Amino acid sequence: QDSGRGEPKTLWGSSEPRPPAAGPGQPSPQQRTETLGFYESDRGRKKKRSLPDLSLLRFISAELTRGYFLEHNEAKYTERRERVYTCMRIPKELEKLMFFGIFLCLDAFLYVFTLLPLRVFLAMFRFITLPCYGLRDRRLLQPAQVCDILKGVILVICYFMMHYVDYSMMYHLIRGQSVIKLYIIYNMLEVADRLISSFGQDILDALYWTATEPKERKRAHIGVIPHFFMAVLYVFLHAILIMVQATTLNVAFNSHNKSLLTIMMSNNFVEIKGSVFKKFEKNNLFQMSNSDIKERFTNYVLLLIVCLRNMEQFSWNPDHLWVLFPDVCMVVASEIAVDIVKHAFITKFNDITADVYSEYRASLAFDLVSSRQKNAYTDYSDSVSRRMGFIPLPLAVLLIRVVTSSIKVQGVLAYVCVVLFYCGLISLKVLNSIVLLGKSCQYVKEAKMEEKLFNPVLTATPGKPAGKQQGTFKSTQGISTDENGSTSVTNQPVHQKENMPSLLVTSNSDQFLTTPDGEEKDISQDSSELKHRSAKKDLLEIDRFTICGNRID
């Protein structure tokens, strides 16, 4: 409206006059407005058509010469490049860990054949000659000697029990099944092997502790004899299960079209689908790595059993060994390829560096070095069993059964060869142990974990007076700090005398309740460290429980 009269402005603005009223035979103002709008839009379209910015040639030229600058997002592309380098480093770092872990399993496996019989003989000799020396100690035998005797007796009993299992009948029974049935059976055997391994080590540990537990304590178990029969039953059933696995693999090797072997090898690639697209932390990846080491070593022993059975059937003809060689290489190559692909994508999807495998190797080396100390609380073979889920007793029983049935020893010369072979095994075991111990010390030094070996007792908090340290003792744990400033806590075996009171391990929550009021400032400083420790647990503590052969917290 106008400021003076309040009349509406014209369509052309306030400076132009209003259009005259429509006379007879003339268009109305509304019709004039529509006609004017039509011409205005027509002039706009003509003007837009004449713009050179939207020409086809201009568009094509812009698409061909358009540029961009990657340095504007430098962090993103640097991260992508590091991921590629990490994937390229995974095969090398993974195979270093696998190589070290397989020799650890080999050392524990050779222990059953070489040093365990000698230790059993020494323990029995001590038991027999004990009246000649008198009872200087309360114990008739040391706990380690009791465990050695139990292992030897279980090994001998299960070996004679395996004579009642007919391998030939089992082979023909499995061979008569269809390919699909055998494929399902092989998958079921793999799952059953992991489940029975997880429960088997607990059975053996329960037997060892029940047999060596101090008698002064209140009895809280069912007795040594029931535990012993449970252990014998477990080793026997596990040996039969591994025999069925080896027989199924032998049938796949001897099939004419090799279709069963191909299907069984393709089953390894199904494992990639089940593990790659899951979230993994460093501890979970350590469990998987240990499981892969155990699985690869077990497959090598199964391949050895298959080759022995096939060579026996062909009268030890060396030409037949070259017939089996391509299939053996295919099985080994598929295992290595699947492990590399699986670990490469797991580390890629979870942003885990390749240096983590060096930490895993140092953790396994720490187990070996700590088992050589005087205050060690377990034998190294049992430590490997708890860490990787690899139990050598059932596999050793099966291998002894197959070797004794495949190779006939007759004559004095044959027995001399057996003695020489046994001496060679002992030499191999000693050489392997020496090399592993030297490499383990090197890995422990590189990881700066020596403090955990030499600080088995309480570690006081630095910077506090002696009077205040009594209320803030954490536990019987060695605490060390790595290069990044992150703390790690490792339980150490502490040899406690019978007259010493047992030290209670306090949790993190108890530390806040028992700290005096004057140390509130120390609590606030240590709270962040405690949270960090709970979030990042030490790899050396991943051996308390078992799921499918893997150690988890």
TrEMBL record:
Membrane topology: Multi-pass membrane protein
TM regions (residue ranges): 97-114, 148-165, 228-253, 390-407, 413-438
InterPro entries: Tatp1 (IPR008010)
Source lineage: Eukaryota, Metazoa, Chordata, Craniata, Vertebrata
Compositionally biased residues, Low complexity: 23-32
Record keywords: Chondrogenesis, Membrane, Osteogenesis, Transmembrane, Transmembrane helix
Cell compartments where the protein resides: Membrane
Protein name in UniProt: TAPT1 protein
Family, similarity comment: Belongs to the TAPT1 family.
Entry keyword annotation includes Plastid: no
Extent of Basic and acidic residues compositional bias: 521-535
Gene source species: Edolisoma coerulescens
Gene Ontology CC annotation, any one: ciliary basal body
Example GO biological process: ossification
Compositional bias annotation for Polar residues: 469-494, 504-514
Region annotation (Disordered) ranges: 1-44, 460-535
A Pfam entry, by short name: DUF747
Taxonomic superkingdom: Eukaryota
